[in-house]
Amino acid sequence: MMSVDASAIVKVSEVSLRYPNGTEALNGVSLDVPKGELVTLLGPSGCGKTSLLKIIAGLLQPSSGEIRINDRISRAPGPDRALVFQDFALMPWATVLRNVAFGLELRGLSRASRQAEAKRYIAEVGLAGSEYKYPHELSGGMRQRAGLARALAVNAEVLMMDEPFSAVDEQMRRKLQEDLLDLLRRERKTVIFVTHSIEEAVYLSDRIVLLSRNPGRVMRVVKPGFRRDTNESDIRRDPRYQDIIDDIWTSLKGYLN
Amino acid sequence: MKVSFKTAISLAIWAATWEIAGRYFGNDFFPPLSAIIRADVDLLSLPTFWAALGNTAHSFGIGIALAVIVGVPLGVLIGCSEVADKLSNTWINIFISAPLTAVVPALIPLLGIGEATVIATVFLFSVWIIVLDTQAGIRRVGASLVDMSKVFGATRRQRFFLILLPGALPEILTGIRLGVVRGIKGVIIGQIIVSLLGFGAMFQDFLQGFSMTRFWGLIAIVFLLSFVLVELVAVIERRVEFYAPSR
């Protein structure tokens, strides 16, 4: 476990979101994301978890409330945050190398230095050898590895992931989850992860923020408490793993109808 | 290979039919294909032909270039802005379906009996489809690609050149190809109405002098040129086609 007093790098205070048609998507959501932790936003569809992530990313403006990154109010995207997209959001006309280097290209790095940096992260996520392939030549899992490498390449402190593994098949998803934990052990990032899969949340997270829906509110926060240095497959064999899944399922069940 | 073989067969049958029809049922107004090919060889040796070709290419080139320079940014604007779309949508759809040939004579008092009128005709014929297709292309660029560029800190300029333009390129090229098709119609129609310039003047001369074989010969050359020109754009279009389904 991370130390309990780790300072919050992302602070969400009383964030509400109301759509122009009057629907309330989020109501008074407050949460802290401690440095170095993986925090998951979990809830039924329509709980506003993706909207909340977009607000933290600066892509969406809350109707009220504020976001602080490292104690500074944030209203727009910044170099301190990077996002991994559910649908990968790779440029289909560009190679893996250019896609991964895109954040650095936007920052005006020279071609040589951004490509060297991108190649390092391409290898890091296990895509070495695919540098000059186009996204349509890759499987879903490989595309998301490229999306992850692009987010890592800009070296942001906060990595946000919006249901990153929901568009790949079950076995690939497990592999990507294991690889993500392995990677985070080396890269030391703060991660905000959105998913609708309870198993995924329990397996990956240091803490899980359960959101209710209509409107989205923080229902409770769960800390699975598995040691991050244990073997990836040991987590799934831990008896507490199933208990926590059942506990969360009991909390969420009431919201499905 | 299979396709080009079929194309060759279809062209051969078509040519044979024309030849037979021309020989047995034809007259001075409808010569057989072989006579037209001989007329073409003859035409290619005329300095007036090359002058007309140069003149036509000049008017066409300027007209199409203007249509692209105006049409693509206008299409991007309309594709990005709800307001611009609402303001211009009806007008563009009127212009795109209108028989613009009727407008050309009205251009003459404004622009004179000369190349300016022909260039304006090419422009008016081709610009609208380029605007419309560019707009459609911009709409096809996924919202998450735009979000992605924002998250990674793209400026407006970077978003335009690195995301929107390449994202819309398949449709932009389709628009330009269709614009070229319309522009070729425009240049010939403009020249015929002005009737002093380029191929239009040659068509008039041949018709008035009843040299029908030459008239048809020139038509064959113009058809062939426009086919080649459109295919050239299509070649570029096919090179970006691979990413069209996945934006």
How would you describe this structure to a colleague?
With 257 residues, chain A is of the alpha/beta class. Chain A is built from nine helices and ten strands. Chain A has a domain at 1-74 and 193-257: 3-Layer(aba) Sandwich (Rossmann fold), CATH 3.40.50. In chain A, α6 links the parallel β7 and β8. Chain A is globular and about 50 Å long. With 247 residues, chain B is mostly helical. Chain B has one domain: MetI-like fold (Orthogonal Bundle). Chain B has helices spanning 2-25, 33-44, 47-80, 82-97, 104-111, 115-140, 143-151, 156-194, 198-208, 212-240. In chain B, α7 packs across α8 (156-194) and α9 runs antiparallel to α10. The A-B interface holds A 54, 57-59, 77-79, 81-83, 85-87, 89, 91-93, 102-103, 105-107, 134-136, 150, 154 and B 142, 144-145, 147-155, 158, 162-163, 166-167, 169, 240, 242-243, 246-247.
Structural category of chain B: mainly alpha
Terminus-to-terminus distance of chain B: 30 Å
Number of E-state strands of chain A:
10
The neighbouring-strand order within the major sheet of chain A is 6-7-8-3-9-10
Give the H and E element order of chain B: HHHHHHHHHH
Over the alpha carbons, how many angstroms does the gyration radius of chain A reach? 18 Å
Sum up the structure in keywords:
heterodimer, A: 257 residues, alpha/beta, Rossmann fold, 6-stranded mixed β-sheet, 4-stranded antiparallel β-sheet, globular, disordered N terminus, B: 247 residues, mainly alpha, MetI-like fold, 10 helices, 0% strand
Summarize the structure.
Chain A is α/β, with parallel strands linked by helices. Chain A has nine helices and ten strands.
Q: SSE layout and pairings?
A:
The complex is a heterodimer of chains A (257) and B (247).
Chain A: E1 8-18, E2 24-34, E3 38-42, H1 49-57, E4 64-69, E5 72-73, E6 81-84, H2 96-100, H3 102-106, H4 111-124, H5 140-153, E7 158-162, H6 170-187, E8 190-195, H7 198-204, E9 207-212, E10 217-222, H8 232-237, H9 239-253
Parallel strand pairs in A: 3-8, 3-9, 6-7, 7-8
Antiparallel strand pairs in A: 1-2, 1-4, 4-5, 9-10
Chain B: H1 2-25, H2 33-44, H3 47-80, H4 82-97, H5 104-111, H6 115-140, H7 143-151, H8 156-194, H9 198-208, H10 212-240
